[in-house]
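hey team, just a heads up i'm posting the complex here instead of the shared drive bc the drive is being weird again. everything in one block, sequence lines first with there labels, then the predicted structure for the whole assembly after. its two chains so it's a bit long, scroll down
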Amino acid sequence: MILKANLREASRALISSRQRSILALLGIIIGIASVIALVSIGTLVQRESMRQFMEMGTDILSVQAEQGRGGGSPKGFRLQDIVIIPESLSSIATVAPYASSYGELRKDGKRMSIPGLGVTESFFHMNRLAMAEGRFISDLDGTTAHACLSSNLAEKLKAQGIATHPGSELYYDNRKITVIGTLEPAAMGGMRPYEIQEGLLMPLPAVQRMSSQSIISTFMARLSPGFTTVQGTEEIRAHFSALPDRMEVRIMSPEEMIAHMERQFRMFTLLLGAIGSISLIVGGVGVMNVMLVSVTERKREIGIRRALGARKKDIQWQFLIESVLLSLVGGLVGSLIGVATSWGIARFSGWQFEIVHGALVLGVGVSVAIGIFFGYYPARQAAALNPIQALRTD
Amino acid sequence: MSLLKLEKIKKSFTLGPVQVHVLKGVSFEVHAGEMIAIMGTSGSGKSTLMNIIGFLDQPDSGRYLLEGKETARLSDSELSSIRNQKIGFVFQQFNLLGKLTALENVCLPLVYRGIPEKEQKPMAMEILEKVGMGDRAGHRPMELSGGQQQRVAIARALVGTPSILLADEPTGALDTRVGQEIMDLFLELNSTQKITTLIITHDPRIAAQCPGTVRMQDGYVAGTEESP
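-- predicted structure starts here --
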């Protein structure tokens, strides 16, 4: 029952020393904001990669041709070396080679630079894609300039009033191309090349014919059922080193991919964690400082309350509640900023955003803990004051 | 039986290397319903005596019986509870809390007594009306005159129905006319409600109005008088 009165008086006391309270809270706000951002981004990244692997499966390898060292011109794979893999290697079921290009898309006097990707029919199932409209590239397209649009590109074109339905015609690198379909949006990152979301997909032979720069630098391989990524990796490596012009390859498995993402994220975690904990300590010291000043300023009040029958415990509670309330306000503001920050980062990185409730609970919990920890000493000081001396102060 | 009985109360303080004996054996008693002025010059030990009577301090030796009960060796929280239940303080500087309204100030002793909030307000309001401050309940101390503030302070002292009203120079910060009004209030409360009142003062005009006087000098009681 004293609690309610205490809460009311604590908020009054904090409001009356507004400026000081706000300054003291900056540290807590920054600290809690970093902690919240950290935890929610961590969770978002995890969910994002999980979603990706759920969509694509974890039985896919990404194989890259090692670039020639010492300035040697990059050499890609030969298509025939790749397409024989499913037949010659028992651990690999299907392969999907692709070649990147970059070109200018032109229509009705509007121009934009768009990444292109030369793909084969197998690319569709390998990446578990789905069509929003029309059909995907077929191996029967040969070198015909057919193009399949990614969802983002189709939207961009539509926004400019350019038709994207199957049969529409566009110019890509000064060649007339015909749209045959549009893809559904797909979760990004991991194994999937990002052109799936932003670019233009064309038959691999057509892209290679358009530009000699377009080499097959990467192919994706799906494991046969019952084989491990290690077996697949070894067989592929052996396959390419047995070629007459022996090739070195770099193979990424989903496990490595996850490990790689985690490594990247660990740096981020350390950075934000360091900022967060330093700010929280600074913020806590700020709270303690405000509370010590408050105790000194209100000695007389403490004396009066003691004369009216407040026990040491009552005084201690009063100041403890005040410091908890103070840091809780900081915690709530910090949580808002943290959520906003993680929303911004998620948007920037193209991840799906959700509010991570656990992070909010953590933020509020940590700020209450700081209020208690750093408010305890000033509250003890207040309670320990001699009532007679406290009454005599001006 | 006396309400309050002091027997050979001694109290000394250590100031650096010097031991200062402030009270050197004070004895007197107060009966329920009495109104007594404790007179003395500054340094006579009357403030220390008031702190001891008000349970803000404890004597080094001697006995202090309140309502016949020994009060030595009490813990801090027991002392707080006695202050809350048995003593009503009125200070020279009023000592109202500036952030609270008059009504909230009067509620404070009830808050520490753990009385539910719903019951506090009517009790406080009733006593504010008794001291003539019912129409100022929502005002903050800053908005009240000195005399009005002291009336609120008296209401705060009385709200918990204490055994003793303990006033330390209650008119000291007021001009003569307002001081006399406050004095009249004490006299009225004493005669109509039988509220036991101890007024600590160095002003002979105040002391003269009290039915009884205890004169302090150099740490001793120099004399007790009963006014006719």
